[in-house]
Amino acid sequence: MPRPILATIDISALRHNLRIAKARAPGARIWAVVKSNAYGHGLARAIRGFADADGLALIEPDYAMQLRELGWQKPILLLEGFFDMADLDIVTAARLEVTVHRVEQIAMLEAFLAMQTVTKVNIHLKMNSGMNRLGFTPDAFRAAHARLRALQGVGDITLMTHLANADDPLNARLPLQQQIATFERGIAGLAGDRSVANSAVDLMHPELRSDWVRPGVMLYGATPGGGSAKSFGLRPAMTLSSQIIGIQHIAAGEAVGYGSRFISATPMIVGVVACGYADGYPRHAPTGTPVIVDGVRTETVGRVSMDMFSVDLTNVPGAQVGSQVLLWGDGLSVDEVAHAAGTIGYELLCAVAARVPFVEA
Ligand SMILES: *Cc1c(COP(=O)(O)O)cnc(C)c1O
Prior knowledge:
The protein is of the alpha/beta class. The protein has two domains: 11-222, TIM Barrel, CATH 3.20.20; 238-360, Lyase, Ornithine Decarboxylase, Chain A, domain 1 (Beta Barrel), CATH 2.40.37. It has helices at residues 11-24, 35-39, 43-49, 61-69, 85-93, 103-114, 138-149, 176-187, 199-204, 334-340, 345-351, and strands at residues 6-9, 29-33, 55-58, 76-78, 97-100, 121-127, 154-161, 194-197, 212-213, 238-250, 255-256, 262-263, 268-273, 290-293, 296-301, 309-312, 324-328, 358-360. The strands form three sheets. Strands 2-3-4-5-6-7-8-9 form an eight-stranded parallel barrel, surrounded by five helices. It has a six-stranded antiparallel barrel with strand order 10-13-16-15-14-17. Strands 11-12 form a two-stranded antiparallel ribbon. Helix 7 (138-149) links the parallel strand 6 and strand 7 (154-161). Helix 1 crosses helix 3 (43-49) and helix 10 (334-340) crosses helix 11. The radius of gyration is 23 Å and the shape is elongated. The mean pLDDT is 96. Bound molecules: pyridoxal-5'-phosphate. The site of pyridoxal-5'-phosphate has 11 residues, from loops. Pyridoxal-5'-phosphate is lined by residues 33, 35, 79, 162, 198-199, 214-217, 224. Catalyzes the interconversion of L-alanine and D-alanine. May also act on other amino acids. Pathway: Amino-acid biosynthesis; D-alanine biosynthesis; D-alanine from L-alanine: step 1/1. Pfam families: Ala_racemase_C (PF00842), Ala_racemase_N (PF01168). Its cofactor is pyridoxal 5'-phosphate.
């Protein structure tokens, strides 16, 4: 018998969440973001779940190639663009659209396009509108645009930026409206579609005009913050489950797990779950992180170890070896587990380890 841990992917949930993303951004076209192996869900499953998206966007050139090999015909966008000249062969071979965010990429494009005349590469020119991660400053943006526009081999140029605080619009250091105003100032008078929206914009700021939206985490049934996935009508696409593989009856005052960090206040029944940090469950999840056993909500006790952690079964009637354990997914949101562990649902979804078997619902 295989170890009982399992990640179950619900393709119909991916489809459903894409419909919600579309409904919230009427008239906009959708890049379904599938970076990091579709936030841990698998590229082949993403292709099926997001068949109705206008394109797929990701970071990794080699995974972009895989999307073509798997049969995806519609546009593909590299969100960090290309990293060196060699990537441009992949860009043309796989017909990829590319983000351009620094001047060296323009120089590479000039050199590459001068050597051939067949391709038209669509560009997503990225502005740093205040997040200070990738992109041209508003002042440098116009010159970059002109330099690209002058190239024969450049097709459409989309005007792109990324927002630091769409889930926290009144952020004191960088309010959402300030970033939008900076972007508007930088693109004033330039022709081209706009691409500004991640999940947080799609879910919470439909008023911001974006010809292209780039939702990621919401498509998998989690949120960037600012409301539960359920409240937006999203359905979790990944359910991580396992089983109880051992039970201990302990007296008051006994310790559980490495470092003996948890001490029972009363006699307890403690179950051992076949799931640990080597499966992607966060090691920093403290005692009290929510877990569901046989449909009953309970919590972790003690430290998470590599292959196991413990749960309180004292109030889970009938729990035994073989009882079903829900780590996150349908019935317990990954955002809630992540919050208890001091992180975000994104990290947990992306971190499910290669040793966990995946099946489809
Ligand atoms: C990851 C990413 C997105 C999607 O972000 P979510 O918060 O997951 O919706 C959108 N745009 C860019 C440039 C990204 O890197």
